[in-house]
């Protein structure tokens, strides 16, 4: 091994030691380098849940500037992507930070507060919530109406309700105004359009359109749910079909 190769190996080992602990336990599909650089449509609401107790927080779209990616992290072009917070305990990345790309059921990280990741059922609820009610204008517009801000804020409250509450026996029992879970877990909020958030949650009966989502996770920073761009979804399906064709041919 040359001195140059030896130095490169040392650098890679140091990078792994620094990065991997902040993604421990995740079934990684890739990575992205992101930084929180602003907001889309949003509002300020008061919340109890996720380790917060009567705290005023920003609820709505986080604008995350992506500068690099690997694996499935490459399906998003470099630039701004819109995401929603699924991790109320931690702070957003104010400098370029490596995140793991995982399926939504694998988030949020770390799992100490919830006791586990959100799991498949909650991920399905969020997928349908996004498929039915997400508005891309909350991300893309330069200026937002009061209605858009209120909708994005209600959408964030609905996501936190799903992540932090125990699963109810029926979607009609979701209620962002009431903490329905014993102990430190649970969620409720004020100063938001709670009626809209609850109406959306009560509509989640499993028959609506489902969005193709991924979680961006980092044990040391706030985690997010983001949508897979439509052309990338088609490309992934095409790659899978091509792989199957080659396998059959062999």
Oligomer: single chain
Number of domains: 1
How far apart are the first and last residues' alpha carbons, in Å? 38 Å
Could you tell me the number of beta strands?
Answer: 7
Largest sheet: 6 strands, antiparallel, barrel
Structural Rg: 19 Å
| N-to-C SSE string, H for helix and E for strand | HEEEEHHHEHEEH
Helical segment count: 6
Spatial order of the strands in the main sheet?
1-2-3-7-6-4
Would you identify the regions where 5 or more consecutive residues have pLDDT less than 50? Answer: 1-21, 237-250
Provide the helix percentage: 25-40%
Computed structural class: alpha+beta
> What is the mean pLDDT?
87
Shape: globular
Walkthrough of the structure:
The protein has one domain. Helix content is 34%, strand content 26%. It starts with a helix and ends with a helix. The chain has 250 residues and is of the alpha+beta class. Mean pLDDT is 87; it is low at 1-21 and 237-250. Helix 2 (119-133) runs antiparallel to helix 4 (146-164) and helix 4 packs across helix 5. A six-stranded antiparallel β-barrel has the order 1-2-3-7-6-4. The chain has helices spanning 3-19, 119-133, 137-140, 146-164, 194-202, 230-249; strands at residues 30-49, 52-71, 79-85, 97-102, 187-190, 213-217, 224-227.
SSE arrangement:
Layout: H1 3-19, E1 30-49, E2 52-71, E3 79-85, E4 97-102, H2 119-133, H3 137-140, H4 146-164, E5 187-190, H5 194-202, E6 213-217, E7 224-227, H6 230-249
Helix pairs in contact: 2-4, 4-5
């Amino acid at each position: 091994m040359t001195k140059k190769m030896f130095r490169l190996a040392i650098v890679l080992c140091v990078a792994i030691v620094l990065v991997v602990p902040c993604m421990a336990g995740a079934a990684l599909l890739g990575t992205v380098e992101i930084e929180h650089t602003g907001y889309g449509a949003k509002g300020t609401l008061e919340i109890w849940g996720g380790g917060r107790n009567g705290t005023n927080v920003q609820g709505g779209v986080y604008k995350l500037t992506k500068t690099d990616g690997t694996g499935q992290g490459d399906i998003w072009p470099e630039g701004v992507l819109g995401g929603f917070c699924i991790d109320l305990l931690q702070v957003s990345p104010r400098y370029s930070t490596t995140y793991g790309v995982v399926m939504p059921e694998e988030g949020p990280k770390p799992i100490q507060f919830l006791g586990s990741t959100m799991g498949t059922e909650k991920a399905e609820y969020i997928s349908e919530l996004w498929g039915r009610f997400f508005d891309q204008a909350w991300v893309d517009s330069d200026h937002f109406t009061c209605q858009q801000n209120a909708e994005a804020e209600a959408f964030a409250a609905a996501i936190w309700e799903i992540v932090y509450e125990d699963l109810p026996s029926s979607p009609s029992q979701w209620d962002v105004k009431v903490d329905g879970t014993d102990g430190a877990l649970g969620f409720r909020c004020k100063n938001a359009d709670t009626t809209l958030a609850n109406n959306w949650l009560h509509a989640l009966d499993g028959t609506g359109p489902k969005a193709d989502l991924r979680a961006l996770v980092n044990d040391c920073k706030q985690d997010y749910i983001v949508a897979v761009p439509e052309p990338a979804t088609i490309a992934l399906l095409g790659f899978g079909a091509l792989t199957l064709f080659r396998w059959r041919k062999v």
